[in-house]
Amino acid sequence: MDLANTALVNNAGSASPGSVQGSAQMMVLKKAINLQAQGVMDLLGSLPPTPAQPALATSGSLGTRLNTYA
């Protein structure tokens, strides 16, 4: 976790509820969380798709019960 986000959480939690300052801090915290969520989604979207694993063999003595990958 980023130290700046920890400070945001601490500030938002220490503000008195219902105050203008508390509302503003909560709004900033929500925007920071949404930005991080969008960044994570962008990173996950940039990953290459996982290759399909081949099915187990249907006959023979090898590959009919266990599929392992290194």
Automatic annotation (TrEMBL):
Alphabetized Pfam families for the sequence: YjfB_motility
Classification via InterPro entries: YjfB_motility (IPR025906)
Region (Disordered): 1-20
Extent of Polar residues compositional bias: 7-20
Record-given protein name: Motility protein
